[in-house]
Specification:
Chain lengths: 295, 295
């Protein structure tokens, strides 16, 4: 039994669960995960029926402790609190958000996920800053601006609907946000060397990550900080090592990696959805491990 | 106001605090921290008296949110719970531990810090394993073995008192631990390619980290995981970048970095203490940034 098997089995101790939920509870990439499931079924450790996975008696006997007991229930294992005041406002605001469309590969993270990023950046000392948000269909710009701590926030997105929404809310709530429609593939000199902090959720191929982070680095004044989300689902350890090399070569010091900090809402809307045209083009979207965004 | 200044000021909003406590609440290395404090005093943002730092009215007006509000109080911002059963036993056991002596650069982390490491490794799927503990004056081997989850634990330490204590407790509680006296500078073939996981708190110079991690890597069977603690106090961003390069060059993928996860007990015993002979010798102990372990 290796670590992935242990993660799977100890996650199943309480109750059977859907394959899609289980994906989230372990560290392997999608191809590795499905191979592992198959092997565990063959060994009689688990049973799979109609997309749901249950532990067998044989599997149950292998594990002594449940993983859930280890995570703090108060903060969902993140270590961070959510500011109640901004949650109230942010929740109300995003009820009317433009819905994700596949052309732009959108798919927003959960409300609590966005708000925990605000807490994290605040606690790290990076909220009181000029902040550059690269791609903002999560409306992180709005969430962070609702604290009234940032000096100024510039949000860019290729989707006009997103930017119009941001600018409308910014005016309504007197938030220090400027939204601009921008295709990341084109450099814009207005946003060079102007910011203390950038934040982005890159497309998760190496060229995609490189494009997003390069724009982030170029936006920083001098030394600065970058925050970005990556998923483990589309990255084997080998690919992750390549990503790490790229981050290092770009001059970053990796100071914090917080796993399962931002999760997608558990409503199934964000997976296996994008089949059509994606505007950044195939070279940024597809590699051997991009099972979650198939084209 | 930069991120370090923001961290300092927002940490002082509630109450004045000692310089030593304040060190822990910000990210800069010690030389950077003391330079920053001096500048902030000159700018009238803080006042320093008898080793205690207070915020001024001018400083107070700069900050809108307290950082403490962001951290989960339930788990001390770590995201992890402590298993009650092993805490009870571990606490009782370490009451009789051999006291730290400077010859070996010992200085144990807090009880909760050790126990959170156990929870973290469990949740990451790495506790059900053959574990190699490199240097064990924290008695992590005992804490993790008390879960009865690990297959086997081998703990090595240069200090005979530590190893005798571990072996005595292992027998008393029927724990699967083997303790061996070993000077890390000498390779021992018995511990090559035998383990799934290693854990260590290296001496924090580049040669020191390299020595500890190399022994860790060599102990792993094939692919495996390593857990190690580093402090930010003795590392500027530049030094941290060098550490990152070394970790990368050794073939590690950095998958989790959890800040302020293990802290030293707040009793002042562990700082500015070692003035004498340290057995690993100067080359492993001293660099330009090692202010916390001066010789």
């Amino acid at each position: 039994m290796d670590r992935i098997e242990y993660q799977i089995i100890s996650s199943l101790l309480n109750k059977e669960t859907s394959i899609w939920k289980l994906i989230d509870l372990q560290d392997a990439s999608l191809p590795e995960f499905f191979e592992k499931l198959k092997k565990m079924e063959e060994k009689g450790l688990i049973e799979i029926k109609n997309g749901r996975v249950a532990i067998t008696e044989k599997g149950r006997n292998l594990v002594k402790l449940k993983r859930e007991e280890m995570k703090c229930p108060e903060c969902d294992g993140t270590g961070y609190e959510i500011l109640k005041e901004i949650k109230r406002d942010y929740e109300k605001i995003v009820q009317n958000r433009p819905l994700p469309i596949e052309k732009y590969d959108q798919g927003y993270i959960s409300i609590d996920g966005v708000l925990r990023r605000v807490s994290f950046m605040m606690e790290r000392g990076d909220l009181h800053a000029n902040i550059f948000v690269i791609g903002d269909d999560d409306f992180f710009s709005i969430a962070s601006a609702l604290t009234y701590v940032p000096k100024k926030i510039v949000a860019i997105d290729i989707d006009e609907r997103v930017i119009n929404f941001i600018n409308k809310i910014a005016e309504e709530y007197s938030l220090k946000i400027e939204g601009h429609v921008l295709d990341l593939q084109k450099e814009n000199k207005d946003f060079l060397h102007k910011f203390d902090v950038f934040i982005t959720d890159p497309v998760e191929t190496l060229p995609g990550i490189k494009l997003f982070l390069s724009r982030g680095v170029a936006s920083l004044k001098n030394k600065g900080s970058g925050y970005f989300g990556l998923s483990t689902l589309e990255a084997s350890r080998k690919k992750w090592y390549e990503i790490q090399k790229m981050i290092h070569d770009m001059g970053f010091v990796i100071t914090d990696i917080r796993r399962r900090f931002s999760v997608y809402p558990d409503d199934g809307k964000n997976f296996f959805k994008y089949q059509g045209d994606v505007i950044l083009g195939k070279k940024f979207y597809v590699d051997d491990e991009s099972w979650a965004t198939p084209m």
